């Protein structure tokens, strides 16, 4: 999740915010409901959890291979978000969930890639017909948006950089779901790339955020009208695309057509700011990393840290999907949860800028 704002004084977040004394760049002066600024959380614990060693400054997104190898996008830095390691570049970590005591290890990346300015965000795995594993990474290189495509070389625990993609229809990428070796859907959390125009877009609640389909032969907008399109994922049967709209507190179900266009089937309303989505391939359940109170996320106070929340959504295509709170914490353990992924009875919870949890369900 990246909703850029500038540091603001707390008086601009209070209910009686006065527009005459507040800067127009204070995006959320009148948007306490969009931020769920009054919401508190009741603790919901998962037994058998521990913090993952080596993740100290965020694991914003997670994707898992069918063989249990989990990939973590770590170290995101973005305007308006706190960072515990502002001078350290980001990276990709891997954990083997089939090990008895799995550890997170940083993957080596080929020398031709610019590691010093690596700023990874959303990630997605694609497995080709020949079993080649491709890792797609949204990269904010000096606040310019690119998609980096890597080939995973398991024997060397390394990533071979294959390609950098940038396009005018991808001005403010957030997350990505791969559907081919150089094909993907990506969310733009804003229409504009210019920071000031992004601020204005959110302040005016323009709903110009969108989803773009990219292939080497065609690039097009396939869904639009979102408040802040964020996490995106494809269903196990490849028939549907799920999109999280953070400030609208919604998950959109979109049908995928042979020409790769999308049409909306339904919208699930929730009472939280939804971030990244993961799918349990065995059940089709959607796991969501959420921010119950966005004000705490964007106005960071170490004495009153942002909450964490994980939802499990079952049977989303049904008339009444089942929504369960699996985990909730007031920041005492985990701050700013952004993703939750499951594999064979194990749960991984990542955050935008804090720690990460490994749990056995």
From TrEMBL:
Keywords, comma-separated and alphabetical: Calcium, Disulfide bond, Glycoprotein, Hydrolase, Membrane, Metal-binding, Signal
Q: Which chemical reaction does it catalyze?
A: an N-acyl-L-homoserine lactone + H2O = an N-acyl-L-homoserine + H(+); a phenyl acetate + H2O = a phenol + acetate + H(+)
Family named by the database record: Belongs to the paraoxonase family.
- Catalytic site: 121 (proton acceptor)
The molecular function terms in GO held by this entry are: acyl-L-homoserine-lactone lactonohydrolase activity; arylesterase activity; metal ion binding
Per UniProt, Ca(2+) binds at 61, 123, 174-175, 230, 275-276
Q: What is its EC number?
A: 3.1.1.2
Which is a Pfam family this sequence falls into?
Answer: Arylesterase
Q: Name one GO cellular component term.
A: membrane
InterPro entries associated with the record: 6-blade_b-propeller_TolB-like, Arylesterase, Paraoxonase2, Serum_paraoxonase/arylesterase
- PTM remark: Glycosylated.
Q: Which residues are glycosylated?
A: 276, 330
What's noted on cofactor binding? Binds 2 calcium ions per subunit.
Which cofactor does the UniProt annotation name? Ca(2+)
Subunit structure, interactors included: Homotrimer.
The membrane-spanning stretches of this chain are: none
- List S-S links within the chain: 49-359
Q: Which organism is it from?
A: Prolemur simus (Greater bamboo lemur)
- Cellular compartment(s): Membrane
Q: Name one GO biological process term.
A: response to toxic substance
User: What PANTHER family does the entry give?
Assistant: PARAOXONASE (PTHR11799), SERUM PARAOXONASE_ARYLESTERASE 2 (PTHR11799:SF17)
Protein name, as recorded: Paraoxonase
């Amino acid at each position: 999740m990246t909703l850029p704002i500038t540091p603001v004084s707390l008086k601009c977040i209070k209910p009686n915010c006065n527009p005459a004394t507040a800067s127009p760049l204070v995006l959320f002066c009148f948007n306490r409901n969009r931020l769920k600024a009054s919401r508190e959380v009741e603790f919901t614990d998962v037994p058998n959890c521990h913090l993952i060693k080596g993740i100290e400054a965020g694991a914003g997104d997670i994707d898992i291979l069918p063989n249990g190898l989990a990939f973590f996008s770590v170290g995101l830095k973005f305007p308006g978000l706190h960072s515990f390691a502002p001078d350290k570049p980001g990276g990709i970590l891997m954990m083997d969930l089939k090990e008895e005591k799995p550890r997170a290890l940083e993957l080596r990346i080929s020398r031709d890639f610019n590691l010093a300015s690596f700023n990874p965000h959303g990630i997605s795995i694609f497995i080709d017909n020949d079993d080649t594993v491709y890792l797609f990474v949204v990269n904010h290189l000096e606040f310019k948006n690119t998609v980096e495509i890597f080939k995973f070389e398991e024997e060397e625990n390394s990533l071979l950089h294959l390609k950098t993609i940038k396009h005018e229809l991808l001005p403010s990428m957030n997350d990505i779901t791969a559907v081919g070796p150089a094909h993907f859907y990506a969310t733009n959390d804003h229409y504009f790339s210019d920071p000031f125009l992004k601020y204005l877009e959110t302040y005016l609640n323009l709903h110009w955020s969108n989803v773009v389909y990219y292939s080497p032969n065609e690039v097009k907008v396939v869904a639009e009208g979102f408040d802040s399109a964020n996490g995106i994922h494809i269903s196990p049967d490849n028939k549907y695309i799920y999109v999280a709209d953070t400030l609208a507190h919604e998950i959109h179900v979109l049908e995928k057509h042979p020409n790769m266009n999308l049409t909306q089937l339904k919208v699930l309303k929730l009472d939280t700011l939804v971030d990244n989505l993961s799918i349990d391939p065995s059940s089709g359940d959607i796991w969501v990393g959420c921010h119950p109170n966005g004000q705490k996320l964007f106005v960071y106070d170490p004495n009153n840290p942002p909450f964490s929340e994980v939802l499990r959504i079952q049977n989303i295509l049904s008339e009444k999907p089942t929504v369960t709170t699996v985990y909730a914490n007031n920041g005492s353990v985990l701050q700013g949860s952004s993703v939750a992924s499951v594999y064979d009875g194990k749960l991984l919870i990542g955050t935008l800028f804090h720690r990460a949890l490994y749990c056995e369900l």
